[in-house]
Amino acid sequence: MDTEARKNALHYFFDKVVGPxxxxxxxxxxxxxxxxEQEVKxxxxxxxxxxxxxxxxxDRARDMKIVCPCIPYHREYxxxxxxxxxxxxxxxxxxxxxxxxxLPPKEVxxx
Amino acid sequence: MSDNFIRAISVGEIAPGGMKAVxxxxxxxxxxxxxxxxxAIQRRCGHMNAPLEMGTLxxxxxxxxxxCAQFDVTTGQALSGPVPEDIxxxxxPPRVAAMLQNVGMQMQHVRTESVHTYKAKVEGGWVHxxx
Lengths: 111, 131
Description:
The complex is a heterodimer.
Chain A: H1 3-18, E1 23-25, H2 29-46, H3 60-63, H4 75-81, E2 89-91
Antiparallel strand pairs in A: 1-2
Helix pairs in contact in A: 1-2
Chain B: E1 6-10, E2 19-24, E3 27-34, E4 37-42, E5 56-58, E6 61-63, E7 70-72, E8 78-80, H1 94-107, E9 117-118, E10 120-123, E11 126-129
Antiparallel strand pairs in B: 1-11, 2-3, 3-4, 4-9, 5-6, 6-7, 7-8, 10-11
């Protein structure tokens, strides 16, 4: 499987999903490219494009919540951060993703 | 036609986003309408030979209906292998479980190959496919 072709395909399909959720791909092209490449590798290994920054625990119910784009499963948290936890997606109004703080859930009042 | 393209179907036979299987000189071909641009690919999936027109077409990406392997219809390039199935925690009868285990073991060795593409062009309201 060609990694670049698969990255483009994931980009095409994810874009359709995250747009209606109020998110977009990060404008940081290097980060976007790197994260998509990791997802292609995870998909090649597991058959599923899991989030590259979350551990796979072999608990299907839990693992399905980290299949990219996992925004619907962690909406409240990502809305508070204005980004998903790996930073592949940011709120559609974000232009400078580096300015967004990465905070644990309890610091945004979710635990 | 001077370049030996074969007249396959009329343009109106496939709505945008649709696919149709045809047989042309003994070849099984699927013609895809990608928002008005027509492409022709081999009918058989590069994973396990399922008929691709029974899958879905999104943009220029076709997803096989059998195991969800994906291909780019413009190049034929394989974009992903099959999606693993989940039977949850269901307990299967021993014979069925043994059969599935055997099938699963063999499927691990099945490679997803790219599919063949054919040149296609529209002329006079018809889609023509290269021999």
